[in-house]
Amino acid sequence: MKLMFASDIHGSLPATERVLELFAQSDARWLVILGDVLNHGPRNALPQGYAPAQVAERLNEQASRIIAVRGNCDSEVDQMLLHFPITAPWQQVLLAERRLFLTHGHVFGPDDVPPLAAGDVLVYGHTHIPVAEQRGDIFHFNPGSVSIPKGGFAASYGMLEEGVLRVVALNDQRVIAQVAINP
C-alpha cells in the first residue's frame, strides 16, 4: 500500500495546493495528515499564504482519502470546517508485517513512545524536523513540515512505497531521509 504523509500545514494554502498536487500524481491510496492543519499556533509565525478556510475547502475535496490525527494547534472549531475527522490523538494503520502508529508528536512522540512491538513504526510530526530511522527495535518517521520547516531543512512530506519510508523535499522532490522497513 502506498501512503503519502503531510504534517504541520498550519493553514498555508500554497503548501496545501502543492501537497494535493503531489498526492494526485503519487497514486497513493491515502493522504495521512499528522496534525496542525489550519491554525498556525502561538509559537509560529504566519506561514506563507495563510488561508485556513481555503485550506479546509481544498482538503475537503479529498476527505474520503484522508486519515488524520489531532495536533496541538487543532481544535473543535477547526473540525467544524473539515469533512474528515481530525480530533483523534492517534490512529493506527495495519500493514501485513507491522503497525504504523500515527500521532502528532505532542502527546506520544520520540521521547514518550507508546507500547509498540518490534518492527512497528512511530509516525509523528510536531517538531517540523524530518526523521527516517530505526531506533532500537522500532522505526521513527517524521515527514517534517510542509509549511514551516525547521532545523535548516526544506519544506517536506513523506511517502511509504514498496517498504521504504522517505522524506521528500516539497519543491524539488529531493530525498531528505529514508529508511527501509521491510525485512
From TrEMBL:
Matches recorded under InterPro entries: Calcineurin-like_PHP_lpxH, Metallo-depent_PP-like, MPP_YfcE, PdiEstase_YfcE_CS, Phosphodiesterase_MJ0936/Vps29
Key words, A-Z: Hydrolase, Metal-binding
- Keyword Zinc assigned to the entry: answer is no
One GO MF annotation is: metal ion binding
Which cofactor(s) are needed, names only? a divalent metal cation
Does the keyword field hold Hydrolase?
yes
The UniProt record lists the EC number as 3.1.4.-
* Coiled coil (residue ranges): none
Name all Calcineurin-like phosphoesterase domain ranges. 1-161
Q: Which Pfam families match?
A: Metallophos_2
Q: Which PANTHER family match?
A: VACUOLAR SORTING PROTEIN VPS29
Q: Which NCBIfam families does this one have? A: PRK09453.1 (NF006988), yfcE (TIGR00040)
Membership in a protein family: Belongs to the metallophosphoesterase superfamily. YfcE family.
User: What protein does this entry describe?
Assistant: Phosphoesterase
